[in-house]
């Protein structure tokens, strides 16, 4: 006689968020001096090897003193802080000088300090050949050309290419602009 599959109970599966929470508690415990270096390393190994939630609980039992209210409070403060940073970035974007998107052509718009570039930016933090802007299939593509001080879109560094559009903040070294179509 076999049992019905609907009554099988499987151990609760460990999520990445739960593992990350335990790793954060262990790091904080080590930073506060509550764990020796060897204990910290041993518990980190056990946390990374754990497959079930029950295996994680003993690893932080002596460290996890944060109440649900304090977790809620710190989580709320973190979300408010992130919101204010986004608000500040948006406010700053409106004050930035505009960089008009060029008319579509057969060649990309080169950006940098070199006088032969389509857009010359005379600033020490801008590379000679810093970036290029291309219209491809109706999308504007910004490509970093291996610049020393980096190219950013909306505060994030571009390592290869990024799609940009009207209103985005683009930075070349320490020079930042707001893209505009007209």
From TrEMBL:
CDD domains given in the database record: FHA
Pfam family, one: FHA
Keyword tags: Phosphoprotein
Residue ranges that the Swiss-Prot or TrEMBL entry lists as coiled coil: none
Domain of life, source organism: Bacteria
Residue ranges of every copy of the FHA domain listed in the record: 109-158
PANTHER family per record: NUCLEAR INHIBITOR OF PROTEIN PHOSPHATASE-1
Protein's UniProt name: FHA domain-containing protein
């Amino acid at each position: 006689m076999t049992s019905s599959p609907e009554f099988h109970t499987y151990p609760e599966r460990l999520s990445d968020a739960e593992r990350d929470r335990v790793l954060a508690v262990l790091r904080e415990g080590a930073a506060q001096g509550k764990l020796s270096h060897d204990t910290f390393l041993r518990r980190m190994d056990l946390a990374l090897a754990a497959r079930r939630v029950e295996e994680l609980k003993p690893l932080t039992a002596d460290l996890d003193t944060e109440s649900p209210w304090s977790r809620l409070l710190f989580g709320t403060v973190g979300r408010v802080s992130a919101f204010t940073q986004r608000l500040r970035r948006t406010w700053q974007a409106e004050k930035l000088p505009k960089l008009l998107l060029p008319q579509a052509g057969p060649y990309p718009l080169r950006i940098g300090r070199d006088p032969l570039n389509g857009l010359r930016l005379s600033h020490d933090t801008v590379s000679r050949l810093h970036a290029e802007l291309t219209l491809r299939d109706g999308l504007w593509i910004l490509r970093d050309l291996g610049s020393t001080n980096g190219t950013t879109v909306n505060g994030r560094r571009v390592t290869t290419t990024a799609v940009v559009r009207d209103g985005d903040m683009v930075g070349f070294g320490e020079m930042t602009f707001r893209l505009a179509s007209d």
